[in-house]
Amino acid sequence: MNTNTRSESSTLDTAAASHTEIAATRLEELRAMRAVLPHFVIPADAGATQRLSNVASISPEFVTLTTVVARKAEALGVGGPNVARMRERMDFADAYGPVADEFEAIGQLLRYSIAVARNEAGSAALIVYEVTKRLAKLPETAELAPHVADMRRALGIRARNMRAKAAAAKRKEAIIQTLTEEAKAAPSKTGAPEGTPAVTPSTKPQQ
Q1: How far apart are CA 128 and CA 151, in angstroms?
Q2: What's the whole-number mean pLDDT along residues 44-54?
C-alpha cells in the first residue's frame, strides 16, 4: 500500500467515525425535542392511532360550531366541556400539522439517502467481486480464491434471506386462503341441518 492509498484510507476511516458521532448527536437532538413539543404523547400500542382516527378526523368547522354552543351553555350556567381547552387543542393540531409533515418528509428523504449510499457501496462491492473472481482464476493471483469464496458466501446469505422472506409471505397467504375457504365451507352454527340457509338479522323466514 503506497502513501497516497494509506492517506486516503485514513481519511475515509475518519469520515466514517465522524458520521457515527454526528448521527449520534442528531439522535440526541431529536430525542430532546420530545421535551419541548407540547402535548407530545407516546402511543400505548401499534393500534392506538387507528383507534383515535375516527373522532380525530372530525372537521374543524364542526368543533368550532360546538364551541360556540358550549360557550352559550357556560353563560347560562349549564355544565359542559372546557371550551378554552377545546380551542387550545385545535390550535395545537393546526399549528403542528405542518411540523409533522416536515418530519415525515425528512424521514422519507433520509431513508432514500441511506438507500442511495448503500446502493453506491453495494455497486462498488459487486464490481470488486466480479473482478476478483476473474483474477482468482489466474495462476499469479490464485491466492484470491479464498476471498472469492468468502464473498460468495456473504452474497448468498442475502439471497437466502430474500428467498426465505418470499417463502414466508407465500405460506402466510396460503394459510389465509385456507382459513377463508374453510370458513366458507363450514356448516352454519345455528343448529340448522347442513345445506339449510341460515337466518340472519337481515333476512326473515317467509310466513
Answers
A1: 10
A2: 90
Residue 96 neighbours by CB distance under 10 Å: 15
Residue 32 covered by a domain = no
Inter-residue contact 57 to 111 (CB < 8 Å): no
Q: Which domain holds residue 158?
A: 142-182
In a domain, 122, yes or no: yes
Encode pLDDT of 134-179 as tens digits: 999 999 999 999 999 999 988 886 666 677 777 777 877 777 777 7
Residue type, 185: A
List pLDDT tens digits, range 104-119. 999 999 999 999 999 9
Q: Are 123 and 89 members of one domain?
A: yes
Residue 196 CA, chain-centre distance (Å), reads 47
The pTM of this model reads 0.59
Is 149 in the same domain as 131? no
| 149 and 166, same domain (yes or no) | yes
Residues in the chain: 207
Contact 87, 63 (CB under 8 A): no
